[in-house]
């Protein structure tokens, strides 16, 4: 069974659809430049309605301790996703300070980027293998871009990893087949407009990921 993460949720309606369709992870984005950004009050309201068997992930980008303190004090999250330029040392600091599992995003554009996966595997609980954003991109993720999945075909790593980047209900089955991923993440691929989740696309994505 492929575990699916629906990221960038902001409403109870989309959350209900995602959970009902079988999502194993739900992501809340705390990054002001993102169209999926949620306030702490909004995130808390959504998080409190998530069933206990679904992992609540807080996505942050180069967050300070003060920002992470504010999130973790009010929002009952189960995992922190670091989607910026956090160093391995910073990953270790955050794990120690908050006592929560950490998922580190690593952007991939070509084979030279794969070494970073091995580096972060040593300090993270999970790795999110995403498409590297263009140099002029305003967002570190959620850009609807994919990378050449053949770069990681047949590779195995010591800790759990999740595939992201340009996934939709039309290509997720092929992405899983090529990479051997057992976990996938989607955000823009289940939207009708930036930041606006499409409930039909959420359900279709999860069904396609799980081979239904």
Explain the overall architecture:
The strands form two sheets. Strands 7-6-5-4-3-2-1-8 form an eight-stranded parallel sheet. The protein has a two-stranded antiparallel sheet with strand order 9-10. The mean pLDDT is 93. Helix content is 31%, strand content 22%. With 212 residues, the chain is of the alpha/beta class. It has one domain (3-209): Alpha-Beta Barrel (TIM Barrel), CATH 3.20.20.70. The longest helix is centred in the middle third of the chain and has 11 residues, at 88-98. The radius of gyration is 16 Å and the shape is globular. The chain contains seven helices and ten strands.
Q: Can you count the helices? A: 7
| Major sheet characteristics | 8 strands, parallel
The overall strand count is: 10
For the record, give the distance between the C-alpha atoms at the N and C termini, rounded to a whole number: 11 Å
Q: Strands of the largest sheet, in order across it? A: 7-6-5-4-3-2-1-8
- The figure for the number of domains is 1
The fold-level CATH name is TIM Barrel
Q: Can you tell me the CATH class?
A: Alpha Beta
Strand content: 15-25%
CATH superfamily: Aldolase class I
Overall body shape = globular
| Run of helices and strands | EHEHEHEHEHEEHEEEH
Radius of gyration: 16 Å
- CATH architecture descriptor: Alpha-Beta Barrel
Uncertain runs are none
Fraction in helix: 25-40%
Structural class: alpha/beta
Mean pLDDT: 93
